[in-house]
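Many introductory courses stop at the sequence. We go one step further.
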Amino acid sequence: MLIVPQYIPIMAKITRKPVPRKAAVPKKKAKTAVAKPKAPAKKSLKAVKPWTPAEIHQVFSRFRKANPEPKGELEHVNPFTLLVAVVLSAQATDAGVNKATRALFEVADTPQKMLDLGEESLREYIKTIGLYRTKARNVIALSAKLLGEFGGEVPRTRAEIESLPGAGRKTANVVLNMAFGEHTMAVDTHVFRVGNRTGLAPGKTPLDVELGLEKVIPAEFMLHAHHWLILHGRYTCLARKPRCEVCLINDLCRWPEKTV
């Protein structure tokens, strides 16, 4: 028997070359944030040297000497017309209110006469004043409330006056001071500015300034204090260009930007 030799193919061993790994790319370092220097904080009026009692007495003594009997500039003939005038003066000038109320108060100087006049006719008298429609509605409503709850008289407490339509704390303080001689401090935009700018009574709100002024002003000056401060803010310590050169208290004022 013929034996045929079998040929067994020998498989070449395949050797795979290792794939070279890519070198790791080092990560970029995050940039370190450089803190910007903070802007210097504005100097707070509260940080200014406080007024001494002697200095405050000097301020109001000067105001009294220059104007012994200051008067409010809203024209009125009785507590009721004063109340109405103050309600109408919100976001309006005293001069503008006076121009409208001179004719009005000739025909309606009591709550009953105001109700008899009526809201529509009242609007015609005060239409030159800002927000006159809302104000006319409030004046008619407060007149009705005065007749219904207070016997037609202006009440003599802050809470009762504030309960009247259109009347807030400032209105109550003005009426209590001017009509009834109470030692109240009505803070309008002028008093708020003077209290903060001079450093007499710094505060973030009108109430802060009101309470601050009441705390530091001697009782002998309180009857007229808010009038002196209003007039000072209206004619001397102006909002944009204060007239420091003619200011009665420029040597005592704590305002860092005063021009004298």
